[in-house]
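Narrative summary of target 7.
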Amino acid sequence: MWQIVFFNARVKRQIDDWPAGIYADFLRSVKLMSDYGVDLKMPFSKPMGSGLFELRCKGKEGIGRAFYCTFVDHEIVILHAFIKKTQKTSKRELELAKQRLKEIRK
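Modeled conformation, tokenized:
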């Protein structure tokens, strides 16, 4: 069984504040990850390279994204989360997730 943890309290609050439909999809995806590990494929998850993954959450209110990685002892760390406003994921959001990945891998 995998444990889901957050990079910090701010990331958890961001996700907790997502609209209800997107948040519900996040909870479903996280349940799948905690039960079966990080081997989720599209449409749930997408590898972003270097051990970073994108959790793809949808609801009638829009689209949310949460970047995550795996850590020792079956931990999945949610590094960064945001609500998508454009078709493409912004470079700024991706770079922030990559920076946090580097921080926890030190």
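The beta strands are 3-6, 45-49, 52-59, 62-71, 75-83.
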